[in-house]
Amino acid sequence: MLWLIIIILLLVIGVLSAYILLYKKEIRNIAKKLQFIKDNDTNMKIDLQIKMKEINELAIQLNHIIDYYKTEKIAISKAQHEFKEEITNISHDLRTPLTSIAGYVQMLESEKTSKEKKAEYYSIITRRIETLIAMLDDFFEFTRIESDEYPLQFEKVNVNNVLTNVISLFYHDFISKGEEPSIQMPSTPIYIYGDKDALTRIFQNLIKNYLNHGTGNISISVKEEKHVCISFKNYALNIDNEEAERLFERFYIADKSRSKKTTGLGLAIVKNLVTKMNGEIEAYVEDSFLIIDVIFKL
Amino acid sequence: MLNLLRADLYKLRRSKSFYICLAIIALVVAYIIIDFKSSAHMKEQLNPSTFHWIYMLFEEQAFLPYFIPALQAIFITMLITGEYSTGTIKDSVSLGFSHTKVYMSKLITVSIGTILMLLVAIFTTGITSIFVFGIYGSFSIYDLMLLIRMLIIQDLLYTAHGSIFLMIAFLIKNIGSTMAVSLLLSLVIVPPLSTLVENSDWGRIFLIMNFSPTALPHPQAVDIRVAIAVALSYLILCSGIGWFTFKKQDIK
Amino acid sequence: MDEYILQTFGLTKQYGNNTAVYNVNMKIKKGDIYGFIGRNGAGKTTTIRMITGLVTPTKGEIELFSQKGEKNIKAGRPRLGSIIEHPALYPDFTAFENMKLRGKLLGIPDKKVINSILGTVGLSDVGKKKVKNFSLGMRQRLGLALALLGNPDFLILDEPINGLDPEGIVEMRKLLKKLNEEQGITILISSHILGELSKLATRYGVINNGTLVEEFTDKELQLKCRKYLSLKVSDSAKTSFVLEDIFKTTNYEVLPDNIIKVYNLLDMSGEICLELAKNDVKIYSIESKGDDLEEYFMKLMGGNNHA
Predict the structure, then answer these.
(1) pTM to 2 decimals?
(2) pLDDT tens, position by position, A199-215
(3) Rounded alpha-carbon distances, angstroms, from residue B39 to B31, B44, B133
(4) Do A43 and C152 touch (CB under 8 A)?
(5) Superfamily of A155-297 according to CATH
(6) How far is CA C57 from its chain centroid?
(7) CATH 1.10.287.130 domain locations along chain A
(8) Which of A198, A267, C172, C222 has its CA 20 to 30 A from that of C127?
(9) In a 3-state reduction of DSSP, which class is residue A65?
(10) pLDDT tens column, B127-154
(11) Which residue of B has its CA nearest to C101?
(12) What number does CATH give the domain A75-146?
């Protein structure tokens, strides 16, 4: 009987020491992994060799921390990347019109240019300068809205009124584009809770975007069901769903050559403002029609 | 390595063919015991206690030594060739586990699967024989120790046997051919060959000839030593060949 | 920052007398989406198998995560997630069980991660459906989920778009782009169809008959394949005036060093020269640039001599 007890005891000791060894090895393994994660740009997380409750819990918590630290890092590098891109875009957007202005100025200085031509060049230069100013305004506006220094005053706003006002402001532009907007909205006023100026700007930018880039007739409709949905629809042959989703990105211009002399900020501002007013905005293509829906909760 | 083993055991646990094998063993064992019901009046002459019926099943060549290898062939083939046909064998290798570890883990899984088979056989025998013959004869802790000793030796032998199938599976990789070769080997070729050399000492180089002499409460020391030596040689040889082929193998 | 995730040096694989891959020197930088393009049977999968350690190269060396030597490479392999040819799945398991098994293999401590990754690839509502009843597209997505479970730094995807419907392709592309941008995962993606890669890859490797014919970046490709007139002139201001005033175009870009790219007027280079000369602008060079993308790749992939 004695040898039986001895064997059992030996077995117990063996199992226990194996357990302790594994335990130690696991802790070392975790330390090593943590160091690796600290020293390398990696997505790796802590993984385990053995299943022990407390170590498992430790690993889960460590992984949460690693996750957190990584999300921060991603956000920072993304912001840096965007910043660089913005600088490039801005200088790009400014260079081409400025060069063209310089070209016209040279021609003005030349004696060969006739008087009539000169007058024409002056007006072209003025227009270019106006575009540049408008672009710079856009930049400024955008930075202001982005930087949260743009307090919104929430109040009850009549959507119908705001929309009608904005459309009438653009009356001449519609005429010169040769298109008449078709507008459907209910006769009863629709109210949302939001900032009146911001809403005005949202509509302005959406219509400007259509005037600058859109083709065909635009139809604007306001509907009130569960939510208030203001939808802008126009014929757009050369855009697909993938591009439509990118419209709200800063500086995104579907026309890669950026020849339209706009900044691509208008819709980014729209998105920002809509989000600030707790609304949603989406763009999609349906049967070659580009549809932009602005949705507000009641 | 532990993770690899854990994953392999999970696969074993979820393998339908393995459960079918276990069920077949239970049924076969139960059938054999029930078949002895007619000789229930002379149960004491056949075996000194209910408990000793277990040994009989392990000892008699036509019983467990015949069935277990066949069933091993089935579950090992399914386990390994399944990984080749689904391509999952790539996983562990491309995750950086060495070929050696992958093979070792499979071998341990085979061994654990075999122990489970033996345990099922033991329990079914125990329970069925209690039903058929009732509890009779004496039974002590000492007897249990002896049974555990037998179980360990038998598992070593069967694992060695399993390592042959494992090697075949890693060599052939294709489910149909592996199954055919393994079953042919364990059911058709080896049993008659081994009966030819039954009584000579050289017969012991067949693994199958070592099952009976060690499946006794008190086997002879020399039988145990021979059995362990033979089992280890098979295990090392087959695992060596299997491991080497796997290591040199290009995984499709 | 120019850290190479993967470099191969003279990677060669012979099967008997048949050379499947010959002397491949591949370079993949951190953050790349590497489009590995070639016809079926050009040696893509064999190369990928060698990289993932499934096939031993006959000759050549691999450097993975700046580590050489078998042992060091093995240590880096857990940082790599891969789908090779078709995703390796257990047909009798559900999606969750497949993930659980991989989790065991990787030693993932928290099983909650599984559901969130299944959600990422759009498989959160497959429930108890067994993988053998999955469509090819669902398998591909599960394969990607499995590869992502190990929090990889480098994803190797062999023909991942096979079997996906057009919508699935768009989603997969978006997901890969997101993984690349947000988590900085370097991706090697192989395909025999250029269209699948051209919207995604930042660097290309073209393989033909087992040889890596050429490697180039997305930017280099764009330069090669965008049609425009490139002008180098003495006075870019005056040139832009000429373009606007005479040719009535604003579809041009002014680059530093007095280089101007004109995106239309491709067949009017003669007239442009003439007008510029009239306005005392010196032209140092004028060339029409840009190949057709498809044609360019066809040329690299071995011309039209295929069946």
Answers:
(1) 0.72
(2) 888 888 888 888 777 77
(3) 14, 10, 10
(4) yes
(5) Histidine kinase-like ATPase, C-terminal domain (3.30.565.10)
(6) 23
(7) 75-146
(8) C172
(9) helix
(10) 888 888 877 777 778 888 888 888 888 8
(11) B7
(12) 1.10.287.130
